[in-house]
Write a structure and sequence with these properties.
Layout (H helix, E strand, L loop, with lengths): L4 H9 L4 E3 L15 H9 L7 E3 L9 H10 L5 E5 L2 H14 L7 H9 L20 H11 L5 E5 H6 L1 H11 L23 H6 L5 H11 L2
Parallel strand pairs: 1-2, 3-4
Helix pairs in contact: 3-6
């Protein structure tokens, strides 16, 4: 989570040989597994002949049960893991929750609460995982114990931001897809920013568009 999966999903999904799921994050293997394969196939949608089907749910990697299900049910699938500096990732994750009003605590208090095991935020989100999701070593070791390393491609957020088209070309080659010279990055997707006042940010939604943009710029950090 917060490692560029939305940008990569949109970028890779523009390749003519690829079919992205109707919703980027299906949460099938962790939250909706009991709904069965018919539900999953409906969410994935109908690809054209010869297209590769993919989805992008960033909570899978840190969920051992989800990884086991993927390894068992899709043993030949290619997997893409997106990683980012864990400190930057934690900050971005926190500010996403703060900006959407899921996290009522300041950053330091939220990290302390996570260390104490106080992970619940609301019924719809994954909870406080600012620190937990950044321990990539144990997550990758568990993944590689179940899936051949040759089936896993690791993309580093910083490399992708620096040169998204070059990184996508390497990823496409690693996945065995034909090159697509005209494929271009969609730009930064799903960016969350820090605000001086989150409550002010929400109040401005009732303002006329021009005034809302002006206040929004002044309210950003």
């Amino acid at each position: 989570m917060r490692c560029g999966s939305s940008s990569i999903f949109r970028h890779l999904g523009a390749h003519p040989g690829v079919h992205g799921s109707q919703r980027k994050e299906t949460y099938f293997f962790d939250q909706h597994y009991e709904r069965g394969w018919t539900w999953y196939e409906d969410v994935l949608g109908r690809p054209a002949a010869g297209q590769v089907v993919f989805e992008a749910t960033p909570s899978y990697l840190a969920d051992e049960r989800a990884v086991r299900r993927i390894a068992t049910d899709l043993p030949e699938a290619s997997l893409i893991v997106c990683l980012r500096d864990p400190v930057e990732r934690a900050h971005s994750h926190y500010w996403m929750n703060a900006a959407t009003r899921k996290e009522p605590l300041d950053l330091e208090s939220a990290l302390d609460a996570e260390r104490r095991g106080e992970v619940a935020l609301d019924a719809t989100g994954p909870g406080r995982r600012y620190l937990r999701d950044g321990f990539y070593g144990p997550q990758l070791r568990h993944l590689f114990s179940l899936v051949p390393r040759s089936q896993v491609e690791v993309v580093f957020f910083e490399d992708y931001v620096r040169d998204p088209d070059a990184e996508m070309a390497k990823l496409i080659g690693a996945l065995g897809l034909p090159p697509e010279p005209g494929l271009r990055s969609p730009g930064r997707v799903n960016r969350y920013q820090r605000f001086r006042s989150v409550s002010l940010r929400y109040r401005t939604k009732r303002l006329p568009p021009g005034l809302r943009r002006l206040v929004g710029r002044l309210n950003r950090v």
